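Office hours follow-up: a student asked to see two folded examples consecutively, so here they are.
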Amino acid sequence: MMLPLGLALVLSAAGALAGLFSPPSAAGTVAVTPATGGDATVAARAVYRAIDQTWSGLRPLAYDGDAAASDCRVKPFAADVRVEADDTSYEDGIMVEVTFDLLDCAGWQVDRWTEQRLLPNGSSRDEVMLALRTLARRATTDANIWRHVECERARRLFSQGLASIAGDPPTYLYSFYKSTDGQMRIAVRAGGPAWEAGIRSGDVMQKLDGKAWWEYGTFQTQRRAYDGLPHTFVLERGKRRFEVALGAPLVPR
């Protein structure tokens, strides 16, 4: 049985978002997190070494947690690199792939780089591992180039844990996605305005401003996630149904 609707009204002005930024002690520290699997572990070690050797002013930190699980107020890092890697055999060879996913201190994606190499069938495990390390270094170089091109955004990210800069549109730091069960769910940046209002990643959206999400159409609803306007949601979390009203969005300055 669903519980009665309960209203969660939370002031979401940037000044009230205690978990939005990483602590000063975390400035300049970049976590390196391998995804599951041996390939990811090999690639993550190569990323760690490449950051340590080539990213001036920044230091890597080996990390095996989930940055998105909590806000940033006590994080030991300002940014997180999640490293995914695998090798897959096809008829024409072995595809080796490494993905360097740059995240902020709460696991919100900033940018992503992927490198691939096709090895001949029959390549040894040593050859696969060499390819993994080479691709990991290339992806790290790509990210380092971004760091210098997007210098202000990168400075904000690595010093305070959030990659927003002046001129970015207002945001509640949430987005919609369609899950395999056909539900429209919400992904939320921990410590952001939507998080402070009571929304959590994985919540099922039943209504947006009094209408079922499909009344808007999937694309339109997803686009509205970043319109900077207050909204009221009817959400489900397990067996609980509740209402959340957003306050003010984050206005990057």
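And the second, which I mentioned at the end of office hours:
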Amino acid sequence: MTKSRLVAGLAPIAALVVACAGATNNTATDAGGSGGTSCNDIADSARKEVDAVIEAHRSCTQASDCKAVALSASCFDSCSRAMRADGEAEYTSARAKVDKTQCAQFTSQGCKLIVPPCAPPSPLTCTGGVCTN
């Protein structure tokens, strides 16, 4: 096998590895070039903010208390998570907030979102008092 064929054969695997990590273009900084926040830092900040809302609404007594939601916004995608359905308004508000703040900065810096391939979520359950999928 030639080196070029080997490299060409590995390209799809490398792309999948990057996508599974939910990677972003980490080289861009702020538009002024003054050493602003990296793309990964911005996306991680947004992810943590949305995930904190999901985590605050995970308790349950039965599976019907739970709902699957996307752990994502316009600057990150981490597939889906399970949360208590009554936290949906707070979750929606958190996503809208990060879209207007962190994700707007992410876009203005020229960062690129790579959406990971996500397996279909498992059925929702309430295991040990926690919503899971």
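Two things to take away from it. Residues 3-20 form the longest helix (18 residues). The mean pLDDT is 79.
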